[in-house]
Amino acid sequence: MKKALVLEYKNPVRTGRRYALTVAAAIFLFMAANVSGIKSYAGVTYMPDVTKEMNTPEFWLSFSPYDADTVQADRSKIEQINLDNLMNEKTNMNDLQHYTESIDGMKFNEQVLADAREELKSYQNKGYFDQYGNKLSDILIENIAQNTQNRSASQLQGPTYAIVVKRTTLNAFPSDTIITDELGDVNFDYNVLSSVRVNEPLVIKSVSADGLWYYADALNCSGWVNAYDVAICSSRAQWESAWMIPEDRVLVVTDSKIILAESNTNPESSNLLLTVGTVLEQAPAGSYGARVTNRSPIGNYVVYIPVRNGDGSYRKELALINGNAEVSEGYLPLTKRNILTVAFRMLGDAYGWGGMLSSNDCSGYVGDVYRCFGLKLPRNTTWQAASHSFSYDVSECTDEQKMALLNTMPIGSVLFFKGHEMMYLGTVNGKYYVVSSVSSMAYYAGPGVMRTRSVMINTLDIRRANGTTWLSNLYKLQVPYMM
Questions:
Q1: pLDDT for 44-53, tens place per residue?
Q2: For labelling alongside 121, which of 226, 235, 286, 427 has CA 20 to 30 A away?
Q3: 105-125 and 138-146 helices cross at what angle (nearest 10)?
């Protein structure tokens, strides 16, 4: 899979001189402390022209309260959009539900070996580093590339079905090696492609030479996953029973993160991280006893979680989720209020390239918000923009024409420029506001680049590192829940 373009530009200034860095840091702090445009409330800092009130759904819903709770797309419409996204070749989604094909394992070995060598060489030519600060060496590249080879490959390999047991990532290579373009910046890893959540289905197509990684297809991405983060199902029927959940038993995590209670008796669920958009099955009433995880289930949801046995096989186990946790029984109704409520629960969260750091990048953020409604979007900005959803191509429009069209776009619309996407909120005093997971942008009070690395609200007149505004760079406006 080709990765989405890097969100914004990472800081291109690199120097080995401690004095230069110290002075730059001091100047930045001085400017930050004396910028009149920045607002601070109770210790929380916001972007220029953004107030504390703007960080609440109620602020934006007040402009059109009459339709805040109107369902914008019902279940049948959402399923129609999901099917269209699945059938659209430009979205690069995988039809797991109907996946039965066998592959030529020998040819697959050849292809992944060639792809790994080519991509790793490109990073080497760009002067990228590993997590230890070393330039990527020929030996490292070849070791990683050779690990893509399935030692048991055959010309006819059927699929293996698996379930994710802990929130993890799909990687470009079967390796924990971090690949970064900035010395010491181990929070940005080009090896990471996409997050996968607890109870998400995978189709395993190959295994690494060391046996520690599986090459897998997820719904909207393919890559290498750590073998210890997944469980192998004994049959397709067992696999389907884990994630093809009856709608009346669906439980969706609608908070940024939920951590299950610590438990000595049930280590598999102890402190298990569930991130927004995770879908679990509620256990039927009467199917469990007086204790679950050695506790009374009173005041809790009782759910099934996937567990990896010692031999790597799958089983499911009961677990408890606090009844006051931000979850939804069934997919949330797709309303403007619910879109903003879910999106704003992640304000201030860390930016995570490809889903690393248990966080989201820009497209992952948008995708996970809409997962809570059962709407399944493509993985990255390019693929999402290629969907058949209702949209305007504004690549040839003036800023004034873009603003006129924005005035007609509903809350939750997705706006794209090359390498980034954001959710539209509305306009206040002639300024247009968006929320997104942002890696970096031009510093608004002087020269240089801000490493933002957060989910945040800002206006479209903020500038990219190249000095142009976000507004001027927009090329598509899209409503993902309309066709």
A1: 999 999 999 9
A2: 226
A3: 160
